[in-house]
Amino acid sequence: MIVSKSFQRSEPRACLVMAFVLLLGGTNSAKADSMLDTLQLHGFLSQALVITDRNNFFGPSSSGSGSLKYTEIGANASIRPHQDVLIAAQVLSRRAGGDGSDANPVLDYGLVDYQMVSNQQRTFGVQLGRSKYPFGFYNQTRDVAFTRPSILLPQSIYFDRTRSLALSGDGLTIYMDQRVPTGNLRAQIGFGDPQTGDDLRRTLRLDMVPGSLDPERSTIGQIRYEHDGGKIVAAISAANANARFDSSLPGLSNGDFYFKPWVLSLQYNEENWSLTTEYARRNSGLENFNNPAFNFDVTGESWYVQYTRRFNEDWQWLVRYDNLISNRDDRSGSAYEASGAGPAHSQYAEDYTLGLQWNVNPRVMLAAEYHHVDGTGWLPIQDNPDPAETRRRWNMLLFQLSLRF
After folding, report:
1. What mean pLDDT is predicted for residues 177-206?
2. Residues in CB range of 191: below 8 A, 6 or more apart
3. Strand (E) or helix (H) holding 274
4. How far apart, in whole angstroms, are the C-alpha atoms of residue 197 and residue 19?
5. Residue 30's pLDDT band (boundaries 50, 70, 90)?
6. Residues of the chain above pLDDT 70, percent
7. Which residues pair with 300 in a beta bridge?
């Protein structure tokens, strides 16, 4: 999140911070009052109903009544103790299928933002704390339904089944925003430790192995250009995320996980419609285990193209094609299936999506969307523990109510 000194109203995603109370103690009454004038508080709530004809997504969605286990609740705040300093954070409770254990409130982000330069031509600053990663177009605001073009983001790039790894990290971020004659050029690079939650362990099939998966120093960066007031937006994002698995299983050594994706993003905007496409290549693997069955190295590929149309001021519809390949050297998954690792369709997914959103008023939004999917490459493992029981072709309906204040 980047906010200039002249920014008078925080974005819905900009944040809760408890630390400002401590800062008030060192100021006089006038300064404290002035500081409190900059305090911004926001919150949001989203509840979805997920219905599938086969397979499960975010709970027992293939049951007759569908699943209500997709809920997002967040509270955030921000304050400026000084014109050059922003303190911001957000607490998030998110339930997405499984046993609901992930619904415990967690610190989504919490940071101190210091701007060393901020004028009409340039903004330059640093952030310290837990920051949202600048990954593609939507990662930094993906938790707020009002900032998403659809109920689900393209799952080939914005994985929900391993969202913790790509979502945020603890460390230092440096950013710059340069105004140029034709638009804005933004650059951001972060250094720190990513989040390595249970979702990543499940995906790596390490959840049944005694031990701990701990983050190691990682980097992520993005360069973004907005032309003619945002009519054309282009960005390139890259990361090098790492983690260490400390094994407690006798006979199994420790191992290392790496994830090296890059994403190319492009968007064209007109008054009533937008065309968006993103392409990603992802190299990931496990190495250094003394048991070769645990080690692997694969390069996956993802892309989507999306058209959104705004009409009658408060309505928007969307059509999208989304494609995921887990291994570029085995696009059909046939070699994966022949090895006995699982069904071929677990290695890819083609998703055809239709969506509709209605902003009832600035605080209430209703949305619905339909997905026809060939493949199960992004199905949540916690809702489908046995890949052999999943079906290749399946359909999904989602309905969502979203509120914000």
Report:
1. 90
2. 171, 172, 173, 217, 218, 219
3. strand 273-287
4. 26
5. low
6. 91
7. 282
Under 8 Å between Cβ of 257 and 285: yes
Q: What is the DSSP letter of 307?
A: E
DSSP H helices in 210-338: 334-338
Pure H helices in 148-221:
163-167, 198-203
pLDDT tens digits along 252-304:
999 999 999 999 999 999 999 999 999 999 999 999 999 998 999 999 999 99
CA gap 257, 240 in Å, rounded: 11
**Measuring CA to CA, how many Å separate 246 from each of 200, 222, 250, 330?**
15, 31, 12, 30
- Supply the DSSP symbol for 3: -
The answer on pLDDT for 23 being more than 50 is: no
- In the numeric block, the tokens 């913790």 are attached to 164
The pTM (predicted TM-score) of the whole model is 0.88
Distances (CA, A) of 228 to 4, 121, 278: 20, 15, 20
Domain ranges of the chain: 53-67+101-404
- Residue found by looking up tokens 């006089």 in the block: 28
What is the reported pLDDT for 284? 94
User: Could you write out the DSSP letters of every residue in 78-146?
Assistant: EEEEETTEEEEEEEEEEEESTTSGGGS-EEEEEEEEEEEEESSSEEEEEEEEEEE---TTTGGGTT-GG
Summary mean pLDDT of the chain: 89
User: Which helix or strand (DSSP H or E) is residue 29 part of?
Assistant: helix 29-36
For residues 138 and 282, what is the distance between their CA atoms, to the nearest angstrom? 17
For residue 156 the two structure tokens come to: 């080939």
**Tokens read off for 387:** 């890949």
Report d(CA 300, CA 282) in Å as an integer: 5
pLDDT band for position 197 (cuts 50, 70, 90): confident
Q: Looking at the domain that runs over 53-67+101-404, which CATH code has it been given?
A: 2.40.160
